[in-house]
Amino acid sequence: KQEVTQIPAALSVPEGENLVLNCSFTDSAIYNLQWFRQDPGKGLTSLLLIQSSQREQTSGRLNASLDKSSGRSTLYIAASQPGDSATYLCAGTSYGKLTFGQGTILTVHP
Amino acid sequence: GAVVSQHPSWVICKSGTSVKIECRSLDFQATTMFWYRQFPKQSLMLMATSNEGSKATYEQGVEKDKFLINHASLTLSTLTVTSAHPEDSSFYICSARDEGESTDTQYFGPGTRLTVL
């Protein structure tokens, strides 16, 4: 059974700082891995999707990497802004099911 | 990207009543849809897998008689919370699976917030 863990649970940084969110998974038979953003009381916004054959994906200030052999993925956010404050969730697709991590609550203060 | 809608976006009901939530894939056909539940400050937990034309598959600990799922067409799945109680108050999110030769991606609806008084 796939288990997904995210570290840290919460992160508070000053505006402008570069930061890394970590995600680890137990089953390397992962089809793809996604990073989502969730604002309070809202649904999920898909940020990046990495297929198992890929090592990284980039979108604007976001870069996500995937290392299946070590069971890890990272989300790198460059030049953070207060508008980046949200909960970030990673989720892996295995055997047709998506398993979510517990999320990292990010606060970027001015 | 593909769009998935949910209706209603929020609902308040009295204890003992039933509530139906709809999930629609607007621009693609989904043989498989998923229902998740999210309690405050927690992550999403898969409740069940909804299969078009067949019975839903429920995760361990989820009561199938309480959470009725119907997937009557390739673009619509419904979740009915029967005899709702305050402990059923939660954020319910659906997703629709887009499967292809080189893709297996779930697209998420905006969620439905259920409050049971």
Could you explain the architecture of this structure?
The complex is a heterodimer of chains A (110) and B (117). In chain A, the strands form two sheets. In chain A, strands 2, 4, 5, 9, 10 and 11 form a six-stranded mixed sheet that branches. Chain A has no helices and eleven strands. The mean pLDDT of chain A is 94. With 110 residues, chain A is mostly beta strands. In chain A, strand 7 and strand 8 form a beta hairpin. In chain A, 0% of the residues lie in helices and 60% in strands. Chain B has 117 residues and is an all-beta fold. In chain B, 0% of the residues lie in helices and 55% in strands. Chain B contains no helices and eleven strands. In chain B, strands 2, 4, 5, 6, 9, 10 and 11 form a seven-stranded mixed sheet that branches. In chain B, strands 1-3-8-7 form a four-stranded antiparallel sheet, with no helix packed on it. In chain B, strand 5 and strand 6 form a beta hairpin. Chain B is globular, with a radius of gyration of 14 Å. Chain B starts with a strand and ends with a strand. The chains are: A mainly beta (110), B mainly beta (117). The interface between A and B is medium-sized, with 21 and 22 residues.
Key attributes of the depicted protein:
heterodimer; A: 110 residues; mainly beta; 6-stranded mixed beta sheet; 5-stranded antiparallel beta sheet; B: 117 residues; 7-stranded mixed beta sheet; 4-stranded antiparallel beta sheet; 11 strands; 0% helix; 55% strand; globular
